[in-house]
Predict the structure.
Amino acid sequence: MPSASRNRPSEQVDLPADVTDPLLWRLGFDVARAHQPDESGRCGNLACPDEPGPCPALRQAEQAMLLARTGDAAGDDLVPGAGTAGEHLPRRLPGSVLRAA
């Protein structure tokens, strides 16, 4: 029987201070991480073969993450990194058109 626990990148990061819907934010984070463009600028996820980045899944994931926040913590990154403290992804995911509020 498969284990119910899965490796989700969102479980390795702290929620931004202004998140009002943690489930939506974490789902958006996980989808955004899975659909980052590769070196050629195309979506690196197998579900989006040869889709130019940002793919629709990445754009929708970023929108979900924005909708899950109040926008009160202007200094927070849109997508914090999963690395060591203080390490973050860019405020805007590479190739995306949405900007954090």
